[in-house]
Design brief:
Order of helices and strands: HEEEEHEHHHHEHEHHEHEHEHHEHHH
Distance between the termini: 24 Å
Helix content: 40-55%
CATH architecture of the largest domain: 3-Layer(aba) Sandwich
CATH class of the largest domain: Alpha Beta
Number of strands: 11
Structural class: alpha/beta
Strand content: 5-15%
Shape: globular
Number of helices: 16
Strand order of the largest sheet: 5-4-6-7
Length: about 350
Amino acid sequence: MRSRFSFSKGITLGSCWFLGMILTACQPQTVSENKQSLEIKSTQATASPSILSVVDSSGHTVKLNHPAQRIVCLFESGCDGLYMLNQGSKIVGIPAEIYQQPMLYQAYSILDSRIQAKQIQSPSQGSHATNIESLLLLQPDLVIMGGGEKQTIALLRKLGIAVYIMESSTYAQVKEELSEIAILTAATTRANKILHYSDQKIAEIQRNTTKQPHRQSIYYAWSGGRIFSTSGTESITNDFIELAGAKNIVQTKTNQPNVNPETLIEWNPDNIVLWNTDPQLIYQRPELRLLKAVQQRKVFNLNPAFIYNPHTIKIVLTALYLHEQVYAQPKSRTMQDTQYDMLNMLYGSKAAQALISP
């Protein structure tokens, strides 16, 4: 479904004149850009009464003179983070995928009635298709987006629009980016509460893992039935496997390697984890019937995908689920209770109930 707020992609000379008119009317916040080394970025995220300053994943310093009040967020995980921080009311623009993908639309409709009514505009047609004119009409004082649209990012910054780039490619980066968005929106107290909770849950997993006689191995398969497409050690997938107290059976550094059935049989993982895919696709494959994970019925599906999104702090919920499943210990409570506890902390009781309901 195309977003009804999408426009053309091109930037013409006429568009540039239009941009100048918009800038005069909107009087956007000035951005001071200083390229910094990524190695020292974590020490440079600061907040003061006069200037809010962070260094984003591209190495750029993003500064605001006051907490952002009108945010165009074109990075879906960033939108999720803003709702976790109780800053969702400041969102005035969202990525088109939230309207285009039924799973995302259903989840975000629970979080924001404006999205349910399709009242929040989307100044894009999808990834790498942001329309500058429609974005500027939203008069943002902060734009959050991925780093792929380098030309668009450079133009926005040249026009004085504060742009914060997200990647969310590791657990450490997920936590860092949540903290930095919190600085730019004056929500650091809330961010600290979320991160403290998350650290406690991971610590619980780590303590329990030390008691296990055997560290479980996991083979991960991508969505859409791509059971022979997996993830290597330098991936967010590897992060949630290790956070769960398990080990990735794939040891290559390649982010998304492909394997053949013979290789998977040779590896013979203890568990197979799928992303939004029916486990029957594994159980029904005759060539995989001798796999340990198949014989022991240890094929698990991360679904619904929204509540297990590893590119957000909900990677902790993914780790909790996998830890419980792969070590199959006696349970004092249901997984739905665990889901509710974390989602309640992130979004509130009403949203948590709706997100986990069938």
